Amino acid sequence: MTPLVKICGLATPGALDAALAAGADLVGFVFFPPSPRNVLPAVARDLGGRVKDRALKVALTVDADDALVEAIVEDLKPDVLQLHGHESLERVTALKARFGLPVMKAIPVETRADLAAVGRYRGIADRLLFDACAPREATRPGGLGKPFDWRLLSDIEAGPDYLLSGGLDAGNVAEALAVTGAPGVDVSSGVERRPGEKDPDKIAAFVKAAREAWKSRASPLPN
Protein backbone atom coordinates (compact mmCIF):
# COMPACT_ATOMS: atom_id res chain seq x y z
CA MET A 1 0.00 0.00 0.00
CA THR A 2 1.30 3.44 -0.94
CA PRO A 3 1.51 5.75 2.10
CA LEU A 4 -0.78 8.77 1.93
CA VAL A 5 -0.27 12.46 2.70
CA LYS A 6 -3.28 14.73 3.20
CA ILE A 7 -3.06 18.51 3.34
CA CYS A 8 -6.22 19.86 4.94
CA GLY A 9 -7.80 23.28 5.40
CA LEU A 10 -7.02 24.56 1.91
CA ALA A 11 -8.99 27.71 1.21
CA THR A 12 -7.16 29.60 -1.56
CA PRO A 13 -5.92 28.73 -5.05
CA GLY A 14 -2.31 29.38 -3.99
CA ALA A 15 -2.50 27.01 -1.04
CA LEU A 16 -4.17 24.34 -3.12
CA ASP A 17 -1.62 24.67 -5.91
CA ALA A 18 1.20 24.34 -3.37
CA ALA A 19 -0.29 21.12 -1.98
CA LEU A 20 -0.73 19.66 -5.45
CA ALA A 21 2.77 20.69 -6.53
CA ALA A 22 4.22 19.05 -3.42
CA GLY A 23 2.52 15.78 -4.34
CA ALA A 24 -0.23 15.54 -1.74
CA ASP A 25 -2.44 12.49 -2.22
CA LEU A 26 -5.50 14.07 -0.62
CA VAL A 27 -6.51 17.73 -0.38
CA GLY A 28 -9.01 18.73 2.27
CA PHE A 29 -11.57 21.53 2.34
CA VAL A 30 -13.27 22.55 5.58
CA PHE A 31 -16.99 23.37 5.67
CA PHE A 32 -17.42 24.55 9.25
CA PRO A 33 -17.93 28.29 9.95
CA PRO A 34 -16.08 28.43 13.32
CA SER A 35 -12.89 27.32 11.56
CA PRO A 36 -10.50 29.93 10.12
CA ARG A 37 -10.20 27.54 7.17
CA ASN A 38 -13.92 27.46 6.37
CA VAL A 39 -14.83 27.71 2.69
CA LEU A 40 -18.22 28.37 1.15
CA PRO A 41 -19.52 25.77 -1.31
CA ALA A 42 -19.30 28.28 -4.17
CA VAL A 43 -15.61 28.91 -3.43
CA ALA A 44 -15.06 25.18 -3.17
CA ARG A 45 -16.46 24.79 -6.67
CA ASP A 46 -13.61 26.88 -8.08
CA LEU A 47 -10.99 25.16 -5.93
CA GLY A 48 -12.30 21.72 -6.78
CA GLY A 49 -12.03 22.47 -10.47
CA ARG A 50 -8.31 23.14 -10.07
CA VAL A 51 -7.63 19.70 -8.63
CA LYS A 52 -8.62 17.68 -11.71
CA ASP A 53 -7.21 14.19 -11.19
CA ARG A 54 -4.06 15.17 -9.30
CA ALA A 55 -5.38 14.28 -5.83
CA LEU A 56 -8.48 13.09 -4.03
CA LYS A 57 -10.78 15.86 -2.79
CA VAL A 58 -11.93 15.54 0.82
CA ALA A 59 -14.87 17.51 2.22
CA LEU A 60 -14.61 17.97 6.00
CA THR A 61 -17.83 18.64 7.90
CA VAL A 62 -18.81 18.68 11.57
CA ASP A 63 -22.25 17.26 12.36
CA ALA A 64 -23.56 18.70 9.09
CA ASP A 65 -27.15 18.24 7.99
CA ASP A 66 -28.14 16.71 4.67
CA ALA A 67 -28.77 20.08 3.03
CA LEU A 68 -25.19 21.26 3.64
CA VAL A 69 -23.66 17.97 2.55
CA GLU A 70 -25.79 18.01 -0.59
CA ALA A 71 -24.58 21.53 -1.45
CA ILE A 72 -20.97 20.50 -0.85
CA VAL A 73 -21.30 17.41 -3.02
CA GLU A 74 -22.87 19.43 -5.80
CA ASP A 75 -20.23 22.18 -5.75
CA LEU A 76 -16.98 20.46 -4.75
CA LYS A 77 -17.75 16.99 -6.11
CA PRO A 78 -15.61 15.42 -3.39
CA ASP A 79 -14.12 11.96 -3.55
CA VAL A 80 -14.36 11.47 0.22
CA LEU A 81 -16.56 12.80 3.02
CA GLN A 82 -14.66 13.44 6.27
CA LEU A 83 -16.85 13.50 9.36
CA HIS A 84 -15.18 15.34 12.22
CA GLY A 85 -18.05 15.65 14.69
CA HIS A 86 -20.14 13.32 16.82
CA GLU A 87 -21.64 11.43 13.89
CA SER A 88 -23.15 8.12 14.99
CA LEU A 89 -22.78 4.79 13.22
CA GLU A 90 -26.27 5.30 11.85
CA ARG A 91 -25.36 8.73 10.51
CA VAL A 92 -22.23 7.41 8.80
CA THR A 93 -24.24 4.62 7.21
CA ALA A 94 -26.96 7.03 6.07
CA LEU A 95 -24.51 9.46 4.46
CA LYS A 96 -22.75 6.66 2.60
CA ALA A 97 -26.05 5.36 1.30
CA ARG A 98 -27.42 8.76 0.27
CA PHE A 99 -24.33 10.18 -1.44
CA GLY A 100 -22.50 7.04 -2.52
CA LEU A 101 -19.13 8.33 -1.32
CA PRO A 102 -16.46 6.82 0.93
CA VAL A 103 -16.53 8.20 4.47
CA MET A 104 -13.54 8.97 6.68
CA LYS A 105 -14.50 9.24 10.36
CA ALA A 106 -12.35 11.24 12.76
CA ILE A 107 -11.78 9.74 16.21
CA PRO A 108 -10.49 12.09 18.93
CA VAL A 109 -7.82 10.47 21.09
CA GLU A 110 -6.60 11.39 24.55
CA THR A 111 -6.46 8.06 26.37
CA ARG A 112 -6.47 4.41 25.35
CA ALA A 113 -10.17 4.23 26.22
CA ASP A 114 -10.92 6.51 23.28
CA LEU A 115 -9.70 3.79 20.93
CA ALA A 116 -12.76 1.70 21.72
CA ALA A 117 -14.39 3.66 18.91
CA VAL A 118 -12.18 1.82 16.42
CA GLY A 119 -14.15 -1.38 16.87
CA ARG A 120 -17.45 0.44 16.46
CA TYR A 121 -16.58 2.26 13.25
CA ARG A 122 -14.45 -0.42 11.60
CA GLY A 123 -16.41 -1.84 8.69
CA ILE A 124 -18.79 1.14 8.72
CA ALA A 125 -16.41 4.00 7.90
CA ASP A 126 -14.10 3.44 4.93
CA ARG A 127 -11.18 5.11 6.68
CA LEU A 128 -10.42 6.37 10.18
CA LEU A 129 -8.52 9.50 11.19
CA PHE A 130 -6.98 9.76 14.65
CA ASP A 131 -6.78 13.32 15.97
CA ALA A 132 -6.12 14.88 19.36
CA CYS A 133 -9.09 15.62 21.61
CA ALA A 134 -9.98 19.28 21.53
CA PRO A 135 -9.92 21.19 24.84
CA ARG A 136 -13.32 21.56 26.45
CA GLU A 137 -13.40 25.29 25.65
CA ALA A 138 -12.47 24.85 21.97
CA THR A 139 -14.91 26.06 19.31
CA ARG A 140 -13.88 23.42 16.77
CA PRO A 141 -12.84 19.77 17.05
CA GLY A 142 -9.64 19.83 15.00
CA GLY A 143 -6.99 21.97 13.33
CA LEU A 144 -5.69 23.10 16.71
CA GLY A 145 -2.06 22.08 16.31
CA LYS A 146 -2.22 19.76 19.30
CA PRO A 147 -0.64 16.27 19.25
CA PHE A 148 -1.67 13.32 21.37
CA ASP A 149 0.42 10.49 22.77
CA TRP A 150 1.33 8.60 19.59
CA ARG A 151 2.34 5.56 21.64
CA LEU A 152 -1.36 4.84 22.08
CA LEU A 153 -1.43 3.76 18.43
CA SER A 154 1.72 1.65 18.52
CA ASP A 155 -0.24 -1.61 18.67
CA ILE A 156 -3.62 -0.48 17.39
CA GLU A 157 -5.43 -2.87 15.07
CA ALA A 158 -7.04 -0.18 12.94
CA GLY A 159 -6.15 -1.87 9.67
CA PRO A 160 -4.38 -0.19 6.77
CA ASP A 161 -7.00 2.49 6.23
CA TYR A 162 -6.29 5.23 8.72
CA LEU A 163 -4.54 8.59 8.88
CA LEU A 164 -2.65 10.13 11.79
CA SER A 165 -3.41 13.77 12.54
CA GLY A 166 -3.02 16.30 15.33
CA GLY A 167 -0.06 18.64 15.83
CA LEU A 168 2.04 17.24 12.99
CA ASP A 169 4.61 19.31 11.12
CA ALA A 170 7.77 18.75 9.08
CA GLY A 171 9.86 18.57 12.24
CA ASN A 172 7.98 15.77 13.99
CA VAL A 173 6.26 13.73 11.28
CA ALA A 174 9.17 11.26 11.01
CA GLU A 175 9.02 10.58 14.75
CA ALA A 176 5.25 10.18 14.62
CA LEU A 177 5.56 7.65 11.83
CA ALA A 178 8.33 5.77 13.60
CA VAL A 179 6.21 5.44 16.75
CA THR A 180 2.89 4.56 15.10
CA GLY A 181 3.76 2.98 11.75
CA ALA A 182 0.80 4.93 10.38
CA PRO A 183 -0.04 4.33 6.71
CA GLY A 184 -0.93 8.00 6.20
CA VAL A 185 -0.72 11.46 7.76
CA ASP A 186 -2.91 14.54 7.75
CA VAL A 187 -1.75 18.11 8.45
CA SER A 188 -3.38 21.53 8.58
CA SER A 189 -2.10 24.03 11.16
CA GLY A 190 1.40 22.53 10.95
CA VAL A 191 1.85 23.98 7.45
CA GLU A 192 0.55 27.47 8.21
CA ARG A 193 2.06 30.90 8.89
CA ARG A 194 -0.97 31.75 11.02
CA PRO A 195 -4.40 30.12 11.45
CA GLY A 196 -5.97 29.70 8.02
CA GLU A 197 -2.96 30.92 6.01
CA LYS A 198 -0.99 28.11 4.43
CA ASP A 199 2.77 28.40 3.80
CA PRO A 200 3.86 26.77 0.49
CA ASP A 201 7.37 26.11 1.82
CA LYS A 202 5.99 24.37 4.92
CA ILE A 203 3.67 22.27 2.76
CA ALA A 204 6.56 21.15 0.56
CA ALA A 205 8.75 20.45 3.60
CA PHE A 206 6.05 18.38 5.26
CA VAL A 207 5.38 16.21 2.24
CA LYS A 208 9.10 15.70 1.72
CA ALA A 209 9.69 14.79 5.37
CA ALA A 210 6.83 12.28 5.36
CA ARG A 211 7.99 10.67 2.12
CA GLU A 212 11.58 10.41 3.32
CA ALA A 213 10.46 8.91 6.63
CA TRP A 214 8.47 6.23 4.84
CA LYS A 215 11.33 5.57 2.45
CA SER A 216 13.75 5.11 5.36
CA ARG A 217 11.30 2.84 7.15
CA ALA A 218 10.85 0.68 4.06
CA SER A 219 14.54 0.43 3.18
CA PRO A 220 16.31 -2.78 4.27
CA LEU A 221 18.95 -2.49 6.93
CA PRO A 222 22.56 -2.66 5.63
CA ASN A 223 24.46 -5.92 6.17
How many distinct folded domains? 1
Report on the biggest sheet: 8 strands, parallel
Number of strands: 10
**pLDDT below 50 for ≥5 consecutive residues: which ranges?**
none
Mean pLDDT: 89
Walk me through the structure.
The protein has an 8-stranded parallel β-sheet. The chain has a two-stranded antiparallel ribbon with strand order 9-10. The protein has helices at residues 13-22, 41-51, 66-76, 89-99, 116-121, 173-180, 200-218; strands spanning 4-7, 26-31, 56-61, 80-83, 103-109, 127-132, 162-164, 184-187, 192-194, 197-198. The chain has one domain (4-218): TIM Barrel, CATH 3.20.20.70. It is α/β, with parallel strands linked by helices.
Task: Summarize it.
The chain is an alpha/beta fold. It has helices at 13-22, 41-51, 66-76, 89-99, 116-121, 173-180, 200-218; strands at 4-7, 26-31, 56-61, 80-83, 103-109, 127-132, 162-164, 184-187, 192-194, 197-198.
